[in-house]
Amino acid sequence: MFKIYKKNKKGFTLIELLVVVAIIGLLSSIVLTSLQGARSRGRDAKRTEDMSQLQIAIELYASDHNGDYPLCGTLDTSPTACSTEGSYTALTNLNIKPYIASISSDPINTKGQYGYYYARGWKPSPCPSTPTVPICMTGSKRNYIIGTRLENSSSPTYSGWGNGNLNFLRGGE
Q1: Tens place of pLDDT for every residue, the chain, 173 residues?
Q2: Which of 14, 15, 122, 147 could form a disulfide with 166 if both were Cys (CB 3.0 to 4.6 A apart)?
Q3: Which residues, listed in sequence order, are joined to residue 146 by a DSSP beta bridge?
Q4: From start to end of 24-155, where are the E strands?
Q5: Taking the model in full, what pTM does it have?
């Protein structure tokens, strides 16, 4: 005789699957967006720590050299400015090897955007003649500045060393 077939409802419809995929896609985009902020804050933390370690090594060098800060080389004629990127002498030539094992490079190190910078003969405060510029050239062996660019900073930017976005400057006066 006649057989009656029942529809087997084990499974999901196409619409249900598409809705679930859309929800997963939306949630993943939200998570990835929030992770980007965490990544940039992590890179800024590394930059700040690298600058602190560099500053400690420079200060230790000066304490062993009558208060004079290092040049970017071992000779008296060595350059007074160096960086991890650009056309300057490499920051790894900074004569502070006994005080720091190695000089890190920026986590991104994109030319013209990020990098670490050092200059002897400058101080991290304005000159009386140029109060709007955050640094002042002194020419002294007893002043220096180090700088980098932070991604998440409300500090004003400074245009120097061929980088128009520096906003983290430290140094010795």
Answers
A1: 666 666 666 788 889 899 999 999 999 988 888 777 888 889 889 998 999 999 999 999 999 999 999 988 777 777 788 887 766 788 888 888 889 988 888 888 766 677 888 888 888 888 888 887 778 888 888 888 888 888 887 776 666 666 667 777 788 76
A2: 147
A3: 118, 170
A4: 81-83, 89-90, 117-120, 122-123, 136-137, 144-148
A5: 0.75
Sequence-distant (6+) residues with CB within 8 A of 2 are: none
CA–CA gap between residue 102 and residue 85 (Å, rounded): 16
From 136, 142, 132, select the one nearest 173 (Cα to Cα).
142
Q: In which residue are the tokens 């994109």 written?
A: 110
Selection from 39, 17, 24, 15 nearest residue 107 by Cα = 39
Q: Which residues of 41-79 are buried (b: 16+ CB within 10 A; e: fewer)?
A: eebbeebeebbebbbebbeebbeeeeeebbbbbeeeebe
The two tokens of residue 124 are 């991290």
CA 117 – CA 85 distance, rounded (Å): 8
Rg, the chain, Cα only: 27
- Output the CA torsion 134→140→143→144 (10° steps): 70
Backbone angles phi, psi at 166, to 5 degrees: -70, 135
